[in-house]
Structures are given as structure tokens and as C-alpha cells.
Amino acid sequence: MITAAEPGQDHAVIYEVTPSGVAVMTLNRPDRLNTWGGDIATAFYAGLDRAEVDPAVRVIVLTGRGKAFCAGAQLSSMGNLAQSIENTDQRKLASLVGDRQPYHLTSLSKPVVAAINGSCVGIGLTQALMCDVRFAAAGAKFAASFARRGLIAEYGVSWILPRLTGLGVALDLLLSGRTFLADEAAELGLVKEVVPAEQLMKRVMDYAEDIAQYCSPASMAVIKRQTYGDAMREIADASSRSDALLQESLRRPDVIEGVTSFLEKRVPDFPGLSVAAGKDHHGEPGL
Description:
By secondary structure, this protein is an alpha/beta fold.
């Protein structure tokens, strides 16, 4: 794996890239269970920007170092809690959360896979749910603990959670704020697989490397936009839109390469994806 850190860079999030194009971003504050704060937020979104514009990166993997994926917000950073809460304004909240919100993950053109290595709570849970695919280590703890902190369903969790589990399950998890383990998370549809902790990263990297090697970056970018966008559309509109997107895809070299490599029984050689050029007239990433 190639470490791609800048000299003097704060390693609140470790950024590495494999030769096959998987960017691995590791939350790196294990001493505080990777609780979310301004240091992690700044490095996190900088890493996502870096991966998004790099044509060599085809898949992004998110994980945490130590015993936790992300155990919620860094409440200790608020100092005198009562006074801090009373004086909290949008600017102070943004310094904790970051300049973007978790749903930013859904807007990326590249697949994002979460390797949930341990506690995944509060805003950490929201970030994980906004990833496209999730794997969890056996025994990892989850909680949408907002109601138990006197908070509301923050930063889009009330949008994503019902879409993954259904309304009844989402309300149970949000209203109770209860803790549940990885096995139940899999049963509820929140994670794809539960893996022994010592095998988690190998399993996730095998999955990510397979996508990076065999799937068209351009196709995955459009599929993500379709999937999240169509969740808000009527079926007829979504179907009509897919027809237009299909016609556009037929003009890209990815289709010929995908079919040819299949018939020739070889690994496809899809071109990398660059989003630096902006969006096309359908609002899709520049391909």
C-alpha cells in the first residue's frame, strides 16, 4: 500500500492508496475512540476531495484505528459543557462537525465502503450509513443515541436510516437510542456482512479491489447518482431518466471494453474517472 501523506500533514486521518486504486482512509484518534471533532473532520473531507479528483482512485474505504470506528462526537472538546451548549452557534457547531455534512459521501462519484472495526455511534453511525456498502467486525457496537443525549436525529440520519431498514425499525433505533451489535445490524440490513475482527480489512479490501479491477468508474459514478436520486423520484421519471443515461453510456468506451474483456475472458482496462471538469447537463460527474 502506498502512503500518500503530505510532509507535515496532520494524521488525524491516514490516507493511503493501493496500486489497484483503492484509497483507504483511517480515522486515527484511537486514544479517544476516534470521536468526531474538528481535526478529524478537516482531514476527512480533505481526503475525500483528494480521492474524488484522482483518476487513479476507483474505490474509497473508510475505517478506524483501534477499538472504534467512530464513537460519536468529541464532547470533551466542548470544555465546560453547560456553558458551551448554551453558547453554541452555527459557527461553533461547524467547527466540530466540519464544513460539510455526512450526506456528502452520497454525492461522491466513487463507491465508498465502510469497514466498521468497532463502536459506531451517533455521528459515527450517520457517517457509516452514508457509505454505499458496510462491513462490520463481529461484536462491533452500534447506537443511534441521539435521544439519550437530548438531541434530535442529526445530520440526515432520519433520511438514510428508514431507507436502509424500513420505517418501523428506524423508529425503534432512533427513539430508543439502544445499543445493538453487529449481528443485529446485519439482520436489519445496516451492514452487508459481519466478519471476525482479525479478518475485516482483508475481506473489505478483497471486495474493494474486485470493484476497482472489474467495474467501470464511469458506470459506478452514474449508478450512484441514479440510486440516490431515484429514491426521491416517481418510478416513471426514474425509468425515463435511466433511458437517457443509457444512451449516454453507449457513447463511452467503457461499454466496448466491458463487453470485449468479458468475451476475451480477461480483466477489463477501464479508463479512470476525472471529476475535475465538473458536471454534465444531467448533473452527473464529468466523465
